[in-house]
């Protein structure tokens, strides 16, 4: 590295030429790397060298000028249904990690489970040169046109649009079979009160796995609650007054599982001695409650990282894949499950 470049840039604003001299590459390579266009054109070793040089001299590309030249701001909109859910905090970390490596920033957009509001957000953001979108809801035809096809779907599928899915059926099957192996036959479902494909898939996988085991489940053994701790806890309290009650419950989310455990304790019921609980997500809350929650690990950071990587491939001109990318899930057994008492 050139000490002369460092001393000069301390006296004036650094330029891309300074980055090029310090990294030992030409300015076009710097432009590709810092413009987020290095994929397939610049080796990872050179990309890392350029990024390190840019940090050392304190060079930041002029985003406004770049937007005028290219029509893009190198911003990705991550439109999530509920930004307060810890799952999406982890998704954002993975998305930002991948985006930063390619010179992009991530804008977190909270749709609050409101389809009409989400459509308005998409139209507003697409008119302000947002480069691409990661969405949890399939856009309408008019919104898809506004996006110019620059979007990736997560946990939902639409023909012709790249999508990233969790292997939800395998995760739910593993959870139910774990409870069956422990000896449970009265298995309930604490479901998210949301109309989204992923929750319909969870319910279907639960029903199918129980049916394969020759078990019929009472309709009363399903409860629905918002993904908000206090409201879910209130729903769970009333639900636990059922007779007969399930001896084990599969929850759509770790937050619901934590609320159910808290409600059971409010009612003087032991977990897992009187009620086994399985969550979904493997979020931090699953490890900080007592007992720690047996859960289906969904690795939300990997989900965010893969979604952004797929979007950037699309933005670079690569053809949209014909089938979704499916990320694995796995059951993590902790202390919230045991044989029925």
Automatic annotation (TrEMBL):
Ranges where the HTH lacI-type domain occurs: 14-70
Transmembrane segments: none
A GO term for molecular function: DNA binding
UniProt keyword DNA-binding, yes or no: yes
Keywords in alphabetical order: DNA-binding, Transcription, Transcription regulation
Transcription found in the keyword field: yes
Record CDD domains: HTH_LacI (cd01392), PBP1_LacI_sugar_binding-like (cd06267)
Protein name: LacI family DNA-binding transcriptional regulator
């Amino acid at each position: 590295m050139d000490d002369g470049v460092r001393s000069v840039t301390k006296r004036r604003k650094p330029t891309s030429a300074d980055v090029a001299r310090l990294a030992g590459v030409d300015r076009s390579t710097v432009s590709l790397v810092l413009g987020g266009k290095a994929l397939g054109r610049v080796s990872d070793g050179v990309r890392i060298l350029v990024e390190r040089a840019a940090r050392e001299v304190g060079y930041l590309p002029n985003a406004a000028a770049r937007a005028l030249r290219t029509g893009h701001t190198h911003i990705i909109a991550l439109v999530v249904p509920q930004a307060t859910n810890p799952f999406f905090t982890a998704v954002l970390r993975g998305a930002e990690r991948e985006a930063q490596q390619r010179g992009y920033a991530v804008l977190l957009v909270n749709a609050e489970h409101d389809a009409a509001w989400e459509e308005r957000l998409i139209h507003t953001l697409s008119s302000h040169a947002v480069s691409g979108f990661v969405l949890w809801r399939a856009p309408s035809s008019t919104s898809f046109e506004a996006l110019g096809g620059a979007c990736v779907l997560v946990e939902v599928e639409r023909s012709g649009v790249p999508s990233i899915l969790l292997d939800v059926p395998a995760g739910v099957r593993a959870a139910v079979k774990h409870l069956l192996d422990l000896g449970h036959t009265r298995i309930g479902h604490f479901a998210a009160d949301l109309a989204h494909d992923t929750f319909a898939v969870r319910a279907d996988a639960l029903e199918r796995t129980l049916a394969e085991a020759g078990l019929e489940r009472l309709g009363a053994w399903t409860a629905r609650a918002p993904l908000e701790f206090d409201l879910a806890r209130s729903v769970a309290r009333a639900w636990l007054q059922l007779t007969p009650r399930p001896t084990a419950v599969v929850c759509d989310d770790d937050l619901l599982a934590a609320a159910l455990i808290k409600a059971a304790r409010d009612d003087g019921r032991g977990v897992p001695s009187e009620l086994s609980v399985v969550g979904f997500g493997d979020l931090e809350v699953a490890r900080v409650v007592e007992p720690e929650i047996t859960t289906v690990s969904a690795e939300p950071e990997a989900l965010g990282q893969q979604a952004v990587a797929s979007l950037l491939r699309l933005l670079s001109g690569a053809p949209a894949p014909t089938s979704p990318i499916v990320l694995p899930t796995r059951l993590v057994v902790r202390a919230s499950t045991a044989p029925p008492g």
